[in-house]
Structure formats: C-alpha cells, structure tokens
Amino acid sequence: MMRMTRLKSSLGCCVLLAAMCLAGLSAPADTPLGYFPDDATAALYLPSIDFVQNDLAPILKEAGVGDGLDGLIGTFPSRLGLSETATLPEIFKALGIDTAKPVTVFVQETPGVRNYGAVLAAADSALAKEKIKGVFTEDGAENFSSGEAKGMYHAQGRIGYVMDADKVFLGNTQELITSMVKRGGSPYVSPYASEAGSEVALVTSIAKLQAAGVLPDGSSAGIPYSTIYDYFKEFIGEIVVAAGESNGSSYVRLAMANPAGSAIAPADSLKMHNLFPADAPVMFNLRNDAKLMQTLRPLLTSIPGLGQGAMYISLVSSMLGSEIGLALTGVTNNIPDGLIAATISNPASIKGLMGMAGVKDGPKEQINGADIYALENIREGLSVYIATLDTNLLVSTNLDTVKKALEKVSPEGIKEGGSPVDTAVLSTGNNGFLVLNGSKLDTSKLGGVSLPAGLDFSDINVLATLGSKGNWNELRLSTPNSMQDIAGVAAGIVN
C-alpha cells in the first residue's frame, strides 16, 4: 500500500497532464500530435510545460482549482532533491524534460474505462532515462518495452513509460503506450499541427467520437443519426476546441478542418450590417444555410424541449434567402427596438408573410420603390413597420429606422459602406457574427425595463464570429477580458 501511495505521488506530474483533459511528416513524428493513435478518442495539446505554469496555472488557481492540482505533485519535489515549493517546470527539468516543447495528452474512451497517454520531449535523454527509471524502480515497477523503446510499467498503479530517442511516452496501459510508439513510424497528419500556437486545444473528429460511443447512434424514437454524421464528414474532418489569449483578448473557438484541404470561402460578403443603426449595442448578421438546417432537423427535433422550436427554425430558414440581420437599440412596451433585415428566398411569398403578420391593408407609403406596411397600435404606443423591396424585408418598431435603412436598399442590392461593424469582425466573421457592446447601451431607451442590480453593462463586450479561412471553418467567442479575470468572475458566481 505504501508503494502504491508513493507511486501516485511521485508520478503526480503525469496525472496532472491527464487531469487537464478532464478540466480536455516524416518519421519519427515532428510534433506530439503525430503520435495520435488510431484508437485514441481525443488529444489535448499544451504549448509547453512552461505555458502550463505561467499561463494556465494562474487561471486554474483563480477558478479555485489550483490547490487541487498542486496536491497531485505530492512529495515528488523532495524525492528529486528539490524544494517543496518547486514549480512544474523545475520538476520536469529535474527529470530531463524540455519544458519549452509542446506536450500532448491522449484520451482513449473504452467501455467503462477511460485511458490516458502523454508524449513529452526530453531535453537531456540520458538524464531523463536515469531519473524516470529511478522513480519507477523505487516504486516496484517492472521492465517493459515496445519494440526498441524501453521503459517500465507498474501493473498495480496502472502507469508506465518508455523512451524512444528524445521522446518520453507515458500511459496507464501498455497497449496505449505501444500504440503511441508505433504511430511515430507512420505519423498522424494533423491539420491543426501547423496552426498550433499559445493555446490549449482539444483535437478530435466525428469518426473518433463515433467510434468511442460519445455520439449517440440515434434518437429514442429509433431515428438513426448516421446520415447526419455522414453529411458533416463531407466538410468536417479534424475538430479542434481551443482557448487562449491573443492581442489583449481572451477567446474560445471551435474549428473544423475541411477534409478536402480548403474550406469554401463565401461567394459574397454579408450585407445586412450596412443597414444597422450606429448606436445599436447588439448587432447580429448570419448567412443562412437552408440545406444545413434541413439536414439537422431530425437531430434537433429529437432533442427534448427543442422539437417544436427546431421545426419553426427549419421552416423560417427555408423561407429566408441568403442572410438575416438584427440590430437592437432599446425597448418599447417590452418589445425590442431596432431593425430586423433579411432576404427572402421567394419574393412572391412576402404577401403571404404580410397576411400571417396580420397586415390586411395595402402599403402605408412607398419610398425608393419599397412598400412600407404598418401594424399600428398593436399595443398602446407601439406600432410595427414592415418594408419590402424585391427580396429584401425590413422590420422595425421605428418608422424612421426603416426609412433610413431604405436609403441603402435598391432592387440591385444593398449599398455597402458606413457599416457600424469593424472590418476585422467582418473578415473573421465572414459567415456571421454577434456583437454585444454594453458601452453603447442607453438605459433611457429601455422603456422601464429594470437591469440586474450590481451589473455594469458598460463592461460587457463580447464578440462571436463564424467564418471560413484557409482549410478551416471556425466559430469563435472572444472578449477583451483576460482569462484570469473571467475565471475569477465565474468562481465568484459559482461560490
């Protein structure tokens, strides 16, 4: 029992890497992602151990989990002749590990068991071999090899290692360790490897998630999802969920590599944002994909609570044209003020939409060839104005907002220029974006709607973008706040 306790303590650094997963081309492989076994479900990419200490550890501590991670190290520092307050880089350097090189932790989902493996680079192979072997020998492990790679394995503790040249392979099963070593002879080609930077990233794919049973085979009603997954595989290969900081902002992103090698860039730029009021604190513009929504419909309708909503979304998507936009400026009689702007797939259906909206009379007036309909006094002091021109549809509770937007609308399309949206946002979000800028919020326009006490909306600044670039499609959520600040706020809310 004592040996077991000491082993877990002494190899706390290895467990630490695995724990982060839970919080996550020539031979040999020139990137740790190249050792991604075929039967592994996901890979957690870490820029370096130095990054974990300097960038990740403060965030984890702010979130209230730093002490728990420190506890995993146990008495390991003293066994290496280090101070009890030794940092992760100091510990790994004492083991001969290069703390500036990337580290990858592999997760293998099997029925009832989750296995872990990791690949690290040695700065001093001789020192690493001596020190790591010494730790395992002291704790009663037995010799173990995978081809030419030699190491040790502790069956009771379910942890072992082998070394191959300057690479250290760690894992809790001999089979997974062997899979990583063998993969080096025919490296996994990761599209993300060339994109990897100073961020933490979880790498997987639809096929790997299916094989591990992470994705459901079908609905409770017996509707199979295989067709949906196959549809996604046509344009989604590797999937990456990453988080980091860049240019003073924190971000979380979901990126999907196109198997064909290049994502299809949008043929046309988004247009509706050119109609948005400059003072809108909320701005949303999205490219519509009716085919995607129809394909997703069986999956969405089978999710409890989403069935009816998914049907409506699918119906609306089929009626819309290429895009939809929304800008919110305030509230009147509990109804949002601003502008809804969209294109319609079938202009002839607009009259039908008018009837569904309750418009019985003809246009209230015409401007620049556009018809403006009015739903007047639907509530005391509240009217809704609907303008149509060719395939364009504009809706607002403010007639002046509609008229101003119509200055940029013609049968030939929407005139570009004067958009309140930053060009960088339009570039990153070439398929869609959502901007929340609390500094633009005018509380006098909220129509008596009370805001949560103690919440300063002027500090809220969030950007979500959906775009295509290179061979990646990406959904990114970012904010000017640091990750450490966000973790502190989140911990305060939870606690």
Question: Strands, helices and their partners?
Answer:
Layout: H1 2-10, H2 12-22, E1 42-46, H3 49-62, H4 66-73, H5 76-79, H6 88-94, E2 103-110, E3 113-121, H7 125-138, E4 142-146, E5 149-154, E6 159-164, E7 167-171, H8 174-183, E8 199-205, H9 206-211, H10 226-233, E9 238-246, E10 249-257, E11 282-287, H11 290-301, H12 307-319, E12 320-332, E13 335-344, H13 350-356, E14 365-367, E15 370-379, E16 382-389, E17 392-396, H14 399-406, E18 409-410, E19 413-414, H15 423-428, E20 432-437, E21 461-469, E22 472-479, H16 483-494
Antiparallel strand pairs: 1-2, 1-8, 2-3, 3-7, 4-5, 5-6, 6-7, 8-9, 9-10, 10-22, 11-12, 11-20, 12-13, 13-17, 14-15, 15-16, 16-17, 18-19, 20-21, 21-22
Helix pairs in contact: 2-4, 3-16, 11-12
What count of structural domains? Answer: 2
Main sheet characteristics: 20 strands, antiparallel
The count of β-strands is: 22
Low-confidence spans: pLDDT under 50, at least 5 residues? 1-27
Q: Helical amount among residues, as a percent range?
A: 25-40%
**Could you tell me the mean pLDDT?**
83
Globular, elongated, flat, extended or rod-shaped: what is the shape? elongated
- How far apart are the termini? 36 Å
What is the overall number of helices?
16
Strand proportion, as a percent range, falls in 25-35%
Structural class: alpha+beta
